[in-house]
Recover the amino acids of this structure.
């Protein structure tokens, strides 16, 4: 038959980049492209034990669960958030299938077609996709090394009357940067004044390098309940992605509506994973584990920064990340990284061209490199291969 | 702040019924309301072993998985479907968070606001909710004990040019009925002729009573690929709901678009659950287990039917289900089951009033009773309590 798809499928188009990256699967290509945590640090014995303990509770562990998520795990997360100066009750939290679903559910209940959403320039590509599928108008706010530039944010709020802004203020994907306190407070102030909801996406916040103090989240700087910040995070980067468990916190009104949307979307996320994560909170040194992952990722980051310095590519700029999983490179204007990727794949290395991370007016001379997934030898070889590809286009 | 929700939240409103049923939680109320499988038959030892085996595969089991779902499990399901005369490759299948998510994803990629969807009268309430949240126009087709009445379906296809029809032809929720072969073939024929997509929802098909032959699915009667049927089912009723794993099969074009929509919605469903289900296929007698559940549920159904016969309520009609989890009652016109529910809860028993299962023009004198979740004594007591409530309104 002749299928009559909805208009929405346009926004779910597979990008040229994704098609190129697909080609790299299964081949001896070193990938600096993905956003994968390193398997080496998955606490598999602890997770195995956690699942075994779940079954000790009896057959009811296999029954349908609450849409809101497994109550003891919501309590664990609330306690975990106290360490970040966030105080919420379990009725202010919804558990989701990764934080990706949190973005999707908030978009469903808060955004109508034609609404304006402001985002960082650049920002997380899968968030752009969700907003586009909802037919929102996405407008980028100019950013520097400290976060959104407040004058540009203010001007764009005035001009466009946005309903929401979406930000990753801590160890951003793709740029790896961390916003200064002044930008956090300024953004909050501007949004409060104009009744703009802030979606604060914080998947990487725990992956902080250098042992210093964490920057306060926008959520913790805001009043609550009744505030203008909704905050989402995930266990994917601090425990393991396969368990697909994220959470979103915010005013109970927002949580109630998202919970109803989730009930229609999938009833609830895996209860097995949620129950196992609760057992991990009870019987595993999660914070010791996070410290280990931080140290290891920081070592990899330092190695990659050293390797990049050695290459001496002309007019190439990056910020040394203070956490997270990525280094963001700006190269000479004449380099189009989508074209470069084809050569790089021929040389046996992959990265993500920056173009996908721009909601509008892409910068074609940018790329995102992941430093968490490759081991030391692979990283050396990967950067060498990348260098060979870059030398070809220079 | 003053939250500015999207129009969509209207369709996710909590129903009066849900609010009443919430009141029943934790109290000594016997629930004939839910759609819960019986915990007693959850194969907990096998599931526990399955998870343990997953971890024996090594740390990579905790990494991100494919959006399409764990490949070996898709192969298992394809093989499982051969028993039902369905032959599909793994590129014609997407794994989802329960079949609920399958309905949601198809709706996202196939339905635009204002599109017409035909449904059975009555039909699954959470499907109605998804379609409404997409702002589709839902039109009910008249049904009798054999399924949709073909003359009404034909007239409504001509009149409304629907894009899709949604059906549960085997042991329907809520009506428990099974469509005749003639209605299956007739529906397929009418939809093919008018280019109408059929979403065949089959969560209960395996729960067949009486040991007879299964009715062929609409999917198996259609050509494939390129056919007009998309088919969804789940492990929730044959293994356990906590594992939240369903699947949808159809033409690869449809699967590709749903996969992209799923990538934006949640990247992928729990890989832990999918990998454990694969281990169950390898090391557990799933079909022996399904036989056990069938026998036990059939016994409970017979008990409930006997109890209902004993009550001698006036002008009350039901079909003895040939499978599934529910009995659907039509009572005297003067009984409004939403009003009855309040009295029933006072007596200590709950059911679902039929009104929620109608997309339009609800029949207020209907109710859905679940027979799978209560044990024998509870069921006797539950029907007695229901009888007391009914006697009050008669």
């Amino acid at each position: 038959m002749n299928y009559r798809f909805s208009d929405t499928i346009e926004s779910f188009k597979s990008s040229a980049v994704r098609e190129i990256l697909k080609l790299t699967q299964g081949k001896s290509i070193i990938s600096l492209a993905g956003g994968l945590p390193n398997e080496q640090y998955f606490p598999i014995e602890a997770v195995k034990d956690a699942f075994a303990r779940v079954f000790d509770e009896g057959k009811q562990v296999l029954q349908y669960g609450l849409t809101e998520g497994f109550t003891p795990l919501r309590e664990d997360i609330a306690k975990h958030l106290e360490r970040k100066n966030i105080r919420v009750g379990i009725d202010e939290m919804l558990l989701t299938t990764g934080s990706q679903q949190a973005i999707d559910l908030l978009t469903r209940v808060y955004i109508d077609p034609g609404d304006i959403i402001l985002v960082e320039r650049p920002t997380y590509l899968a968030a752009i996709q969700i907003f586009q599928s909802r037919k929102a108008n996405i407008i980028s706010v100019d950013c520097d090394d400290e976060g959104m530039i407040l004058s540009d944010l203010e001007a764009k709020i005035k001009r466009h009357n946005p309903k929401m802004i979406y930000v990753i203020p801590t160890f951003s994907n793709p740029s790896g940067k961390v916003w200064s306190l002044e930008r956090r407070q300024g953004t909050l102030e501007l949004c409060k004044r104009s009744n703009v909801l802030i979606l604060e996406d914080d998947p990487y916040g725990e992956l902080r390098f250098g042992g210093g103090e964490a920057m306060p989240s926008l959520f913790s700087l805001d009043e609550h309940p009744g505030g203008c910040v909704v905050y989402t995070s995930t266990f994917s980067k601090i425990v393991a992605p396969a368990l697909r468990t994220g959470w979103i916190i915010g005013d109970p009104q927002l949580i109630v509506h998202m919970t109803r949307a989730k009930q229609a979307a999938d009833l609830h996320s895996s209860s097995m994973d949620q129950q196992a994560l609760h057992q991990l909170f009870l019987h595993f040194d999660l914070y010791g584990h996070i410290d280990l992952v931080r140290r290891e990722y920081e070592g990899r980051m330092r190695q990659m920064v050293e390797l990049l310095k050695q290459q001496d590519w002309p007019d190439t700029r990056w910020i040394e990340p203070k956490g997270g999983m990525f280094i963001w490179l700006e190269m000479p204007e004449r380099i189009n990284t989508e074209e470069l990727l084809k050569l790089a794949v021929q040389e046996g290395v992959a990265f993500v061209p920056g173009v996908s991370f721009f909601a509008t007016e892409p910068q074609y001379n940018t790329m995102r490199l992941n430093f968490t997934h490759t081991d030391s030898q692979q990283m050396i070889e990967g950067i060498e291969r990348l260098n060979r590809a870059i030398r070809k286009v220079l």
Chain B has two domains: 14-43+288-393, 44-283. The mean pLDDT of chain B is 95. Residues 14-43+288-393 of chain B form a domain with the Aspartate Aminotransferase, domain 1 fold (CATH 3.90.1150.10). Chain B touches chain A through 80 residues (CB under 8 Å).
